[in-house]
Automatic annotation (TrEMBL):
This is NFD4 C-terminal domain-containing protein. PANTHER family: FAMILY PROTEIN, PUTATIVE, EXPRESSED-RELATED, UNCHARACTERIZED NODULIN-LIKE PROTEIN. Residues 1-23 are annotated as: Disordered. The chain crosses the membrane at residues 67-85, 97-115, 136-155, 161-184, 191-210, 259-280. Pfam families: NFD4_C.
Length: 323
């Protein structure tokens, strides 16, 4: 074997064949053996990588590109809708709605959150079974529809907050059954309980990033700006800045949440674009009968139908009293 062929084999084996315990220094020998062991483990890990729809292990699912795409889109989508839900009271107050109207908006969110879960689960199942309509595409549509609700809050008109509440509640509820159904279909059911909670991490993460770090910061900044304007006597001629019962500054007007929900619109649109990538990656998977493997069962012919008494029949005959 020439030197070129020998070098090629060493590269294919990760350099493991070149390690000779008798010719290497002790430190180098130990590091080389550890490197070889790591390379072989990685080779076995990726060699046994399952196909979509098979049972992924937890590390395989977490490291999967499909999971990361799905997680990013849900984090953005759920985080944006949670921002609207958690701030609905302050949104209505800043736009001059009465307490009764604000309570109505909160109730509409809860009601349509329920309907969103039911409609998304039921409709996606029918479309998938009859027309092979992928759930990932339906998730993309839901994320794009949420942009309309955010725009209605950013550019409000009389009564549009009710419509925005319906759309935000509907889109928030619809994302969850689609997320968990997609996880079960792409990564299998063997470790579904753990992967279910992995997907659920998107909710607190998105809420913290978008609700606390973005919406809270922008609201406080606008409230402080109004406070400084009032202190200088240039804000509407009022004598004192508005404050809440706890003494915190309150923000009034359309500008309080306009920039926030323009950002939420961009984030939701970005989530729908990311989800489109998952649609393209899984289009071949959803074009087939993904539930066919659950319907295929081996047909077992009863022994008695073939004229041979089964074991259960023999036991019953043996235990029967002799006449």
């Amino acid at each position: 074997m020439d030197s070129y062929s020998k070098h090629s084999m060493e590269l294919q084996n990760g350099g493991c064949d070149s390690v000779s315990p008798s010719k290497q220094a002790p430190v180098r020998r130990i590091s080389s053996f550890a490197k070889c062991r790591l390379i072989r483990r990685l080779q076995m890990f990726y060699k046994t990588w399952p196909k979509r729809g098979d049972d992924f292990t937890i590390p395989q699912a977490v490291l999967s590109m499909d999971m990361w795409i799905l997680f990013v889109s849900i984090t953005c989508g759920v985080g944006a809708t949670l921002t609207a839900i958690d701030n609905m009271g302050q949104i209505g107050e800043s736009l001059g709605y009465s307490k009764v109207s604000i309570n109505t908006c909160v109730s509409l969110i809860s009601i349509w959150n329920f309907f969103g879960r039911v409609i998304a689960g039921f409709l996606s199942e029918i479309l998938l079974r009859r027309f092979r309509f992928p759930r990932t595409l339906m998730l993309t549509i839901v994320l794009a529809l949420a942009c309309v609700g955010h725009l209605l809050i950013a550019f409000p008109a009389p009564g549009t907050l009710y419509i925005a509440s319906i759309m935000v509640g509907l889109c928030f509820g619809a994302q969850w059954p689609l997320l968990f159904a997609i996880i079960s279909e792409l990564f299998g059911l063997k470790y579904y309980a753990t992967l279910y909670n992995v997907g659920g991490i998107a909710s607190p993460l998105g809420a913290y990033l978008l609700n606390v770090r973005v919406a809270g910061h922008l609201y406080d900044r606008e409230a402080l700006r109004q406070h400084m304007a009032v202190s200088l006597g240039v804000f509407g001629g009022t004598a004192a800045p508005p404050r809440s019962i706890s003494g915190e500054l309150k923000c009034m007007g359309h500008e309080c949440f306009r920039l926030t929900f323009l950002i939420m619109t961009i984030v939701s649109f970005f989530a729908s674009l990311v989800s489109c990538i998952l649609v393209l990656r899984t289009r071949k998977f959803y074009s087939q009968d993904i539930y066919g493997k659950f319907n295929m069962r081996p047909i077992e012919v009863d022994d008695e139908q073939k004229g041979v008494p089964s074991a259960t029949t023999e036991v019953l005959r043996a235990s029967a009293p002799t006449p």
